[in-house]
Amino acid sequence: MNYQLYLVTNRYNDSDTEFLKHIEQACGAGVTLVQLREKDVSTGRYYDLAQQVKTVTDRYHVPLIIDDRIDVCQAVDAAGVHIGDADLPVAVARKLLGPDKILGVSAKSVARAEAAAAAGADYLGVGAIYPTQTKVVTHRTSIDTLKAIITAVNIPVVAIGGIKEHRLNTFTDIPIAGVAVVSEIMQAPNVITKVHQLRETLKGVMA
Ligand code: TZP
Ligand code: MG
């Protein structure tokens, strides 16, 4: 799995058509993974969106991860699920998903990261590293904690939270597997240009 430029969605006030267009442009421009992240929608609506997004990601051969919902992942045969502290325990999620689906877990501390890895996580999302408007974050995660987590576990670690193009160079020499980006891509005036720029800058950072 290529985690280098991981797009996590947010719908803001976009229509479904605009939302899907942004995802399509991002896939065409080179994001390596997409997570559909929906909060406060009905199961039916989540399923419907997931199906529509999967049609797009499939066309570009970009794997799709579903936030929070194992049932929605299975219903649309997505590549995997991303869960956090408020979701099912990691071992339970792994059991439900079986061995073949990707299981991503949010981890804010070394202890949580080690436990998630031991319980069957395939990758970790660590953050919020920088201030973010996209999610209410009570505790940010420091770069030092990010480094300690990478050292502690043997699975890929993705940095999230306030990831902007101008901050990518702060990850130079830190062996992250990638960056997870929401607003910098979803709210870009030109999604295609932004993804191209992020990819170009990442080449130097994750060499
Ligand atoms: N988890 C930690 S920070 C965050 C999530 C889902 C949101 C990141 O959004 P942005 O817009 O890239 O700062
Ligand atoms: Mg969650």
TrEMBL record:
Residues the entry annotates as binding 4-amino-2-methyl-5-(diphosphooxymethyl)pyrimidine: Q35, L36, R37, E38, K39, D67, S106, K135
Chain ranges of the Thiamine phosphate synthase/TenI domain: 5-185
Entry binding sites for Mg(2+): D68, D87
Keywords, in A-Z order: Magnesium, Metal-binding, Thiamine biosynthesis, Transferase
Residue numbers binding 2-[(2R,5Z)-2-carboxy-4-methylthiazol-5(2H)-ylidene]ethyl phosphate: T132, Q133, T134, G162, V182, S183
Gene Ontology molecular function: magnesium ion binding; thiamine-phosphate diphosphorylase activity
Required co-factors: Mg(2+)
Pathway involvement of the protein, from the record: Cofactor biosynthesis; thiamine diphosphate biosynthesis; thiamine phosphate from 4-amino-2-methyl-5-diphosphomethylpyrimidine and 4-methyl-5-(2-phosphoethyl)-thiazole: step 1/1
Reaction equation(s) it catalyzes: 2-(2-carboxy-4-methylthiazol-5-yl)ethyl phosphate + 4-amino-2-methyl-5-(diphosphooxymethyl)pyrimidine + 2 H(+) = thiamine phosphate + CO2 + diphosphate; 4-methyl-5-(2-phosphooxyethyl)-thiazole + 4-amino-2-methyl-5-(diphosphooxymethyl)pyrimidine + H(+) = thiamine phosphate + diphosphate; 2-[(2R,5Z)-2-carboxy-4-methylthiazol-5(2H)-ylidene]ethyl phosphate + 4-amino-2-methyl-5-(diphosphooxymethyl)pyrimidine + 2 H(+) = thiamine phosphate + CO2 + diphosphate
Parts forming coiled coils: none
Enzyme superclass (EC): transferase
Cellular compartments per GO CC: cytoplasm
Membrane spanning stretches: none
Cofactor binding description: Binds 1 Mg(2+) ion per subunit.
Entry superkingdom: Bacteria
GO BP: thiamine biosynthetic process; thiamine diphosphate biosynthetic process
Documented EC number(s): 2.5.1.3
Pfam families: TMP-TENI (PF02581)
HAMAP family: TMP_synthase
Family: Belongs to the thiamine-phosphate synthase family.
Function, as annotated: Condenses 4-methyl-5-(beta-hydroxyethyl)thiazole monophosphate (THZ-P) and 2-methyl-4-amino-5-hydroxymethyl pyrimidine pyrophosphate (HMP-PP) to form thiamine monophosphate (TMP).
Protein name (database record): Thiamine-phosphate synthase
